[in-house]
Structure formats: structure tokens, C-alpha cells
Amino acid sequence: MSRLTVLHFPDPRLRKKARPVAVVDAGTRQLAGDMLETMYAENGIGLAATQVNVQQRVVVMDLSKERNEPLTLVNPVVTQKTGTEEMEEGCLSVPGYTDLVRRAEKIAYRYLDLDGEEVAAQADGLRAVCIQHEIDHLDGKLFIDYLSPIKKQRVRKKIEKQNKTRAL
Ligand code: K1U
Ligand code: ZN
Fold this sequence. Notes:
The chain is α+β, with helices and mostly antiparallel strands. The protein has helices at residues 26-41, 125-138, 149-167, and strands spanning 46-48, 58-61, 71-89, 99-112, 118-124. Strands 1-2-3-4-5 form a 5-stranded antiparallel beta sheet. The longest helix has 19 residues, at 149-167. The structure holds ligand K1U and zinc ion (ZN). Zinc ion binds at residues 91-93, 133, 137. Zinc ion (ZN) binds next to helix 2.
């Protein structure tokens, strides 16, 4: 497994729309392993392939306290949304910034696992929020797109300053 580079806002590659995976194969499993290593190294609870500049519909997650319940979702889709709730979100592509975002409270969703088997499940709480956040990444959308233009401009300035400092 290898650690991959996570793209940071406002990198335009974060805006690309990912393509569905046609066949789940060894390449998909390699990508998922690399993404999990990257997510754990960056202390995230989720990561979408778009964030590591791969335009395939692959998401990894681990919401367990012990960080020992890795999950890979290939071609994930939300099939039903119920209610709304606001939750504090962060993003490995927008480091050092969190804010409240309103999303569906409960979801039903489908995906392929790493054996290519279709799985249908339901989620609420942080799991539901994380799945919606990661599918947004696959569609080129970031959680800060839900904020007011003024807030988004402030975030852009903050991250650009951080990016400049990192480049020194
Ligand atoms: O997609 C990503 O960039 C990963 C992101 C997932 C996520 C966290 C919180 C809400 C929605 C989606 C992160 O892992 S950010 C880091 C983190 O663990 C976290 C940050 C703020 C609140 C809760 C968790
Ligand atoms: Zn994110």
C-alpha cells in the first residue's frame, strides 16, 4: 500500500466528476488500500477518490473508535433521504476549517463491495453525513459550497495562505 497526496481547495481537480467503476478488480482493491492508508495517516473518517486525483467512484470510510473497521464503497448512490439535520463537518481537502452543514438525517444507499457484490444499507447520524459528503466529492462538490459566498471567500483566503506557507 502507498500513501497518496490529498488535493487541497481551491485545486480545480477537486471539481472533476468521477466515472463509475465498470468492473471491481485488483486495481480497485489496490486503490482502496492506498486510499485507506492515506485516510488513516491524515486522521480522516472518510476519503473519496477525487481527493487523491483519481476520477473513479470509490469511497473509503472508517467511523470506528479503534480505527479497525475499514469500509469501501464502489459506485455508491443514495436511494432515499429522510428529514434534515445540521452537523459540524470537516474535510481533508479544506484543512483547518469546520462548519455546520444541513443534510438529510437518514439515508438508504447502495454500493458495490470489493468483491463486486451489491450491498443495500441504511444510515443515520455521522455515517449518513459522511456518505453524503463523500458522494458530493465524487460529483466535484465540497462542503464549503453550502456556505454563504462571504464565508466561502474567507475560507479560500485562509487556505491559500496555508498553501503558500506550506510551499515555502
Ligand atoms: O472527505 C473528507 O475530506 C474526510 C472528512 C469526512 C467527514 C468528516 C465530518 C463530516 C463529514 C465528512 C474527514 O474525515 S474530516 C476529519 C474528521 O475526522 C472530522 C472533522 C470534523 C468533524 C468530524 C470529523
Ligand atoms: Zn471532504
